[in-house]
Amino acid sequence: MKILGIWPKERKINETSSYLVLLPLSMMLLIINIPQTIDLYNVWGDIDLIVENLSLGNVTVLIAVLKTAIFWFSGESISVLLSDMEVDRQETNTEEEARRMMRIAKICRRISIGCTLTYYVIIILFVILHLLLIRYIGRILIIRSYFPYNVQSAPNYELTIFAQTLAAWCVGGVYTSVDTFVATLVFHVCGQLKNLKQRLRDLRCEKDNEEFYVKIAQIVKKHDSLNRFVNTIENNFNEMLLLQMVGCTVQLCVTCFLALLALGGNNGIILVQITFFAFYIAYILLQIYLYCYIGEELISESIGIMDAAYECKWYHLSPNEARLLMIIMIRAKVPLSITAGKFCSFSHKLFCNILRTSMSYLSVLHAMNIGNTE
């Protein structure tokens, strides 16, 4: 993220590092997004080329560009979240809490590495696929685009291929790093909620116990802090997540359509094509499921505070002391969540709806394609 210039920190006008983000942003816009958008106008009317344009670059790059802008402008708010995470790490009370935080950190690291490797395998397969296609349809660009010069002549062709590959690397870096970073933030909250639930269960519930009041005050403050943490994530990223949801729905639909077209092809590289589309579809599903999974976990863990309060030995408390637990339970009754533009919460149910919607659009595209060929 530092290489791409989007690592969260306070932006300053007089710091050169604050403008490093302009380099990958310019590459994504000038080498892929704008040329592909112009080419979309040129191929309008040809459903196969329109689908190829939307699937293999344009939608993905547009999402990556907007993610870059949103993440860059949210740098100061996100840096506060990172500081809060460090404070939480230092305030671990037991070895069990420390182990839980370490386990979550390892999970986030594996997710980050897995998503990054998957995307770069896709880029490598995509380049190999188009180099093989040269044997069948001549010198073509890796990503079909319009440029105001002759791309077929040397060294224009080679330089354009190199520039598109480099821009695709920037897209993959931004797309993956932002998603895994947001997932890390939410996983951290889930871990802290687990710790909070354990503290509630371990409360010494005795009448007129001063320690009870101290512990309950700490729990309430911590719960309030986690609520603010999630609200900061939500306020900074809900528009980005709306774009992610819509973009992944479109991408899944058009990519599956291209895979169906590849299955009906008669060239000698169908195996490479199918392998590429399998990885690409898996990556799209992985990214959107990642958000739905962490959203489901966040809802589950935040509601679980209610159960944890009930599981402590509240029946040993006086009525006034028990009411303090009721306040926590009432607050936990409203689950924490991350939403897509505040329209819907990310959850397993939303993931199923995205799949259902994508497949519905796919059936329409397939029917239109059959109608055009008859």
UniProtKB/TrEMBL annotation:
<feature type="transmembrane region" description="Helical">
    <location>
        <begin position="166"/>
        <end position="191"/>
    </location>
</feature>
<feature type="transmembrane region" description="Helical">
    <location>
        <begin position="54"/>
        <end position="73"/>
    </location>
</feature>
<dbReference type="Pfam" id="PF02949">
    <property type="entry name" value="7tm_6"/>
</dbReference>
<keyword id="KW-0716">Sensory transduction</keyword>
<keyword id="KW-0472">Membrane</keyword>
<keyword id="KW-1133">Transmembrane helix</keyword>
<keyword id="KW-0807">Transducer</keyword>
<keyword id="KW-0812">Transmembrane</keyword>
<feature type="transmembrane region" description="Helical">
    <location>
        <begin position="241"/>
        <end position="263"/>
    </location>
</feature>
<dbReference type="InterPro" id="IPR004117">
    <property type="entry name" value="7tm6_olfct_rcpt"/>
</dbReference>
<keyword id="KW-0552">Olfaction</keyword>
<dbReference type="GO" id="GO:0007165">
    <property type="term" value="P:signal transduction"/>
</dbReference>
<keyword id="KW-1003">Cell membrane</keyword>
<dbReference type="GO" id="GO:0005886">
    <property type="term" value="C:plasma membrane"/>
</dbReference>
<protein>
    <recommendedName>
        <fullName>Odorant receptor</fullName>
    </recommendedName>
</protein>
<comment type="similarity">
    <text>Belongs to the insect chemoreceptor superfamily. Heteromeric odorant receptor channel (TC 1.A.69) family.</text>
</comment>
<feature type="transmembrane region" description="Helical">
    <location>
        <begin position="16"/>
        <end position="34"/>
    </location>
</feature>
<feature type="transmembrane region" description="Helical">
    <location>
        <begin position="111"/>
        <end position="137"/>
    </location>
</feature>
<dbReference type="GO" id="GO:0004984">
    <property type="term" value="F:olfactory receptor activity"/>
</dbReference>
<dbReference type="GO" id="GO:0005549">
    <property type="term" value="F:odorant binding"/>
</dbReference>
<feature type="transmembrane region" description="Helical">
    <location>
        <begin position="269"/>
        <end position="292"/>
    </location>
</feature>
<keyword id="KW-0675">Receptor</keyword>
